[in-house]
Amino acid sequence: MDPNYIVKLKQKCKPGDTTTLVELDPGNFKFKTFDEAYFTLVAKRRGLLQSDAALLDDPETKAYVFLQAQTHGSTFGEDFAQSMVKMGNALVLTGNQGEIRKHCALVN
């Protein structure tokens, strides 16, 4: 993670603070949207989540992140749409095959 970003996060979130909210997409005036600006932040190592940082650990996803950051999301819209179609085709577990968790971090 970008050391300068860490300093900013530490200023915003003090130890023991459980109420302060931190933006996933800081500085983006379209803060309620998920768009190609995300890739620019991840490329700068300013992703807030561990999963953001993990995108830079794999050569294929790292190349994709940098492509989207450099081209202002040239293929982002189409890629996102295709991924949503694939997710929609995933088989949903029903009946005794799956469960709906009452608390997402715990198995019922």
From TrEMBL:
Keywords: Calcium, Heme, Iron, Metal-binding, Oxidoreductase, Peroxidase. Gene3D superfamilies: 1.10.520.10, Peroxidase, domain 2. Its EC number is 1.11.1.7. Binds 2 calcium ions per subunit. One of its GO terms (molecular function) is lactoperoxidase activity. It catalyses: 2 a phenolic donor + H2O2 = 2 a phenolic radical donor + 2 H2O. The keyword Metal-binding applies. Pfam families: peroxidase. Its cofactor is Ca(2+); heme b. InterPro entries: Haem_peroxidase (IPR002016), Haem_peroxidase_sf (IPR010255), Peroxidase_pln (IPR000823). Ca(2+) binds at residues 25, 35. GO terms for biological process: response to oxidative stress. The keyword Repeat does not apply. Residues 1-108 form the Plant heme peroxidase family profile domain. PROSITE patterns: PEROXIDASE_4. It is an enzyme of class 1 (oxidoreductase). Transmembrane segments: none annotated. PANTHER family: PEROXIDASE, PTHR31517. Belongs to the peroxidase family. This is peroxidase. It comes from Corchorus olitorius.
